[in-house]
Design brief:
Shape: rod-shaped
Strand content: under 5%
Helix content: 40-55%
Number of helices: 1
Radius of gyration: 31 Å
Order of helices and strands: H
Distance between the termini: 112 Å
Amino acid sequence: MPPAPATPPQKPTGSGPVIGIIVIVIMLIFGALYFWGAQLNKTSEPLPLIPDNATSTQ
């Protein structure tokens, strides 16, 4: 009985890990922008109350 023919080794394409790294980097960027925006909203002072000149005489 002859030995089974050897299959040539397949070369990995490498696109899977590259796409995974790109997705992780994009998620990190969006997370950083989210927390940066939250920090900017937290540090902003509320608008001052400016009373108007209208009188309520009836």
